[in-house]
Automatic annotation (TrEMBL):
The chain crosses the membrane at residues 73-95, 107-127, 133-151, 232-256. InterPro entries: MetI-like (IPR000515), MetI-like_sf (IPR035906). Its main location: membrane. Belongs to the binding-protein-dependent transport system permease family. This is NitT/TauT family transport system permease protein. It comes from Bradyrhizobium japonicum. It comes from the Bacteria. It is found in: Cell membrane.
Length: 266
């Protein structure tokens, strides 16, 4: 008879995670200080962690940090918020209506593979300001993951639940609110988290080309000025902001879905 595998205690799991990060930093330190050259990859110009920490402290003492972070946050959340509203509405329409699927899904599938960089010249032509064009790029990046995951969640709702609700006299709006939304919520939350990460990726691309403030612009400016340590600082800030945003979304999703039992990691 097979025995159940016990889950690791939380303290041990966090210790393992911390050790994995420290191991990566140690490898980075060794590779950069020894100018490791692997042929197709070289660490000759990569600054060591100590220089990156010094550059990070210098940026944190500078008033530019607030301007860069607030500019990026505003662009991300403005575009992402619009993508959430439009994406969830489109996803519900496509997932629940065959006519809406035939009408809306083909153009969305045609536009979805277009990368964010390809949208930048057109967005500059369409919008009167570079600020709106950058917000639009974050919107486009978040829209498609949200739409597709919402469609997947809505279309895969158990039809027996819907039929049972109808047999009890529930109207369409009540079915959407009480049956479809709770069943599709996990897939929607997944799409929201993926869309947030994609939105940050697209924002950085847009800021590198047409921004004046923002973490993406700061990173690209550091590259043009050959401040290599600042490049890594910008990358780490982007990673922390993106990770924090996605974590907040998934945490909020767990709070809003108390009927789902969390899976125990094995």
């Amino acid at each position: 008879m097979a025995t159940a595998i016990k889950a690791r205690p939380a303290g041990i799991r966090w210790m393992v995670r911390a050790l994995s990060i420290l191991a990566c930093i140690a490898l980075w330190q060794v590779a950069s200080t020894t100018h490791l050259n692997l042929g197709i990859v070289t660490f000759r110009n990569v600054p060591p962690p100590v220089e990156v920490v010094q550059s990070a402290f210098a940026l944190f003492r500078s008033p530019k940090l607030t301007a860069h972070v607030t500019s990026s946050l505003w662009r991300v959340f403005a575009g992402y918020g619009a993508a959430v509203v439009i994406g969830v509405i489109l996803g519900f329409a496509i997932g629940r209506s065959r006519a809406a699927s035939d009408l809306l899904l083909p153009p969305l599938e045609l536009l979805r593979p277009i990368p964010a960089v390809a949208w930048i010249p057109l967005s500059i032509l369409i919008f009167p300001s570079s600020e709106l064009s950058m917000i639009y790029i974050t919107f486009i990046g978040a829209l498609f993951p949200i739409v597709l995951n919402t469609v997947h969640g809505v279309a895969n709702v158990d039809r027996r639940l819907v039929a049972s609700a109808r047999s009890l006299g529930a109207r369409e709006l009540a079915i959407l609110r009480e049956v479809v939304l709770p069943d599709a919520a996990p897939s929607i939350v997944t799409g929201l988290a993926i869309g947030m990460g994609t939105s940050w990726f697209c924002l950085v691309t847009a800021e590198m080309i047409s921004g004046q403030f923002g973490i993406g612009y700061y990173t690209w400016e550091a590259y043009t000025l050959q401040n290599y340590a600042d490049i890594i600082v910008g990358m780490l800030i982007i990673g922390l902001l993106g990770m924090g945003s996605s974590w907040l979304l998934t945490a909020a999703g767990r709070l809003l879905m108390p009927w789902r039992n969390p899976k125990v990691a094995r």
